[in-house]
Design goal:
heterodimer; A: 3-stranded antiparallel β-sheet; 3 helices; B: two-stranded antiparallel ribbon; metal-binding (chain B); oxidoreductase activity (chain B); metal ion binding (chain B); respiratory chain (chain B)
């Protein structure tokens, strides 16, 4: 590296050393940040199977999926028609009941039991719990009300209750995740 | 830096002289909180709260280290180890409740300290850095207190952790991954409990570091005082030791009486019964509220119930809650009045007592109340005033207000006259101009 090029040997060494230190610094930060993400054992326990044979129309159960509650609800024909009566465009998070259930299984409403506001467990899945003014779920923390399709209708929550990925492995068993 | 008349550290004992030449730590202490730090002679009792805050920090560190000796950060046993500490460990009950109530005491003291700053304009030049570091300390305190409350792994611990980390989920695009990264899982669990414990142990020592910077920055211009008039001569000051050491000692006595009354007679008055139920991820308590010291900010969070153009209500609430504290960072530049003390600012004083204080009181009350009417609407009105106070009222008031005449000096404000002032005509002339502002 000749002085004539306008690049001095010391400048080159300086830039090379600082660059190497910068790369090394990033290399140190990556594992430090990444170690905080969900670990392999947490991710491994991320699917769950539920037997739904004993859930009668109008009933619901709470199951556990990824350490969080999931609601499995057997809708009555009345609840289904209530959900279908709603003008979808008037909703905060517009979705139809069909979009939130599997084809041919419209009575099985499977959602996370996690309020989309700040993560409380809404009431309405257990026997005798308040279902809110729209007959679905009611979050006691900040007053979000969900309808019979678990869509947000009132209160601070921005989204409908999340529908997790799931599939019917048989007519009576659902695999979530 | 200090005033020219500050007494110099002159060790008489040969060992202290030997020490002073090698590691002048005693000199540092003497100049910081000893006879070498001249302090305005007119400080009122509101100036005791900085010292009390340091005392609370010490109390929390000592009792906290004791608690850590008996605690295990594992979701299976965390709740039981706290109960075991209270029931079986010698003096464990006292350590536990001293630590829990110590957090409340710390916040009582710090809120008085902060509002002292608001009223007396302590944030103004040349003490902006003292103020900014103080806000940093407050944010660190809030983070530390929040994580500490999660450790007993009761129902309120668990749901508090879920709701507060849920706030980060409101951030667009990166929210959900960020929340999972913070928790180390999909919901609060062992990973979250362990990292909260680790950080809860670390952050108090970070606070100690920032407190040292806070005091360092304070000692450059020296302490402010209730008149807001800067120190002009030696007659305006007294040495920190013995005068303010003795006065702070008196404050410790009063503080200790009140603290012991809470600790020994009402140890659970500020707690929540639900936190004596072990954490249950499947069931949310009917009424979750944070600890009392978060209520004003929690009320602001919940005040946003409508989407604001394209910003969802949830995100607005989160932004407003953080904004409510971040706005303090800008206070030294929002308040343009050259007069510091609220005692000489009739208009500012009115808005402080009849605006900011009632708004804070309403937010405080609503933050602890259920999320229903009329509390939501009251929170909205109070939150609106809160932001207007800092962003609109203070800039306008500081521009249009005619302040009351200031005393010539601290000495004059105390004695009614300042003999030394006659000997300093040139100095006095410039100050008179300043006083007219």
């Amino acid at each position: 590296m000749a002085e004539a090029d306008g690049v001095r040997r010391r400048d080159f060494i300086n830039i090379a050393a600082v660059s190497a230190a910068g790369v090394a610094g990033v290399g140190i930060v990556v594992p430090l940040v990444s170690q905080m993400s969900a670990s392999a054992d947490v991710l491994a326990a991320s699917s769950t199977e539920i037997d739904i044979s004993s859930i009668q129309p109008g009933q619901a159960i709470k199951a556990i999926f990824r350490k969080q509650p999931v609601f499995v609800r057997n809708l009555t024909p009345h609840e289904i028609s209530e959900a279908n009566k709603v003008d979808v465009s008037s909703l905060r998070d517009p979705q139809t009941l069909e979009e939130r259930t599997k084809e041919g299984k419209e009575n099985w409403l499977i959602t996370m039991g996690v309020c989309t506001h700040l993560g409380c467990v809404p009431l309405g899945a257990g026997e005798g719990e308040a279902k809110g003014e729209f007959g679905g779920y009611f979050c006691p923390c900040h007053g979000s009300s969900y309808d019979t399709a678990a869509r947000i209708r009132k209160g601070p929550a921005p989204k409908n209750l999340e529908v997790p990925e799931y599939a019917f492995t048989t007519d009576t068993v659902v695999k979530i995740g | 830096m200090s005033f020219p008349w500050a007494k110099e550290y002159t060790p008489s004992h040969p060992f202290m002289q030997w020490m002073d030449q090698r590691l002048p730590l005693p000199r540092l202490v003497y100049n910081a909180v000893g006879g070498g730090y001249p302090v305005p002679r007119n400080l009122n009792y509101f100036w005791n709260f900085g010292f009390l805050a340091a005392l609370c920090l010490g109390l929390q560190i000592v009792t906290g280290i004791v608690m850590a000796m008996h605690y295990a950060a594992n979701t299976q046993v965390a709740f039981d180890t706290i109960e075991q500490t209270v029931r079986d460990v010698n003096w464990g009950w006292m350590m536990r409740y001293a630590h829990a109530n110590g957090a409340s005491a710390f916040f009582v003291v710090i809120y008085i300290h902060i509002f002292r700053g608001f009223f007396y304009g302590s944030y103004k030049a040349p003490r902006e850095m003292v103020w900014l570091l103080g806000v940093v300390i407050f944010l660190l305190m809030m983070a530390t207190a929040f994580m500490g409350y999660v450790l007993p792994w009761g129902q309120m611990s668990f749901w508090g952790a879920k709701v507060i980390t849920g706030l980060f989920g409101a951030i667009p695009f990166v929210g959900e991954p960020l929340q999972q990264w913070l928790l180390g899982g999909f919901a609060p669990d062992n990973a979250a409990l362990n990292r909260f414990f680790s950080l809860h142990y670390l952050l108090p020592f970070v606070i100690v570091g920032v407190v040292i910077l806070h005091i360092w920055a304070l000692h450059i211009p020296g302490s402010s005082n209730p008149t807001g008039v800067e120190v002009k001569s030696e007659s305006d000051t007294v040495p920190f030791y013995p005068y303010y050491v003795a006065k702070d000692g008196w404050a410790i006595g009063v503080f200790a009486i009140l603290f012991c009354a809470a600790l020994f007679f009402f140890p659970n008055a500020l707690g929540h019964p639900d936190n004596y139920i072990p954490a249950n991820p499947m069931s949310t308590p009917a009424h979750i509220v944070p600890e009392w010291y978060f209520w004003p900010f929690y009320a602001i969070l919940r005040a946003f119930t409508q989407d604001f153009f394209f910003i969802p209500a949830k995100l607005m609430g989160v932004l407003a809650m953080f904004g409510a504290i971040l706005v303090w960072f800008f206070l030294p530049w929002l308040d343009r009045s050259p007069v510091r003390s609220g005692s000489f600012r009739p208009l500012y004083r009115k808005f402080f007592f009849f605006g900011l204080i009632p708004a804070m009181a309403v937010l405080f009350y609503c933050g602890g109340a259920p999320a229903e009417e009329p509390y939501v609407m009251l929170s909205q009105i109070a939150a609106l005033y809160y932001f207007a106070h800092f962003l609109i009222v203070i800039p306008i008031v500081s521009a249009i207000e005619k302040p009351d005449p200031l005393p010539f000096s601290i000495t004059e404000s105390v004695l009614g006259h300042d003999e030394g002032a006659k000997l300093r005509p040139a100095h006095g002339a410039t100050e008179a101009v300043h006083g007219d502002v």
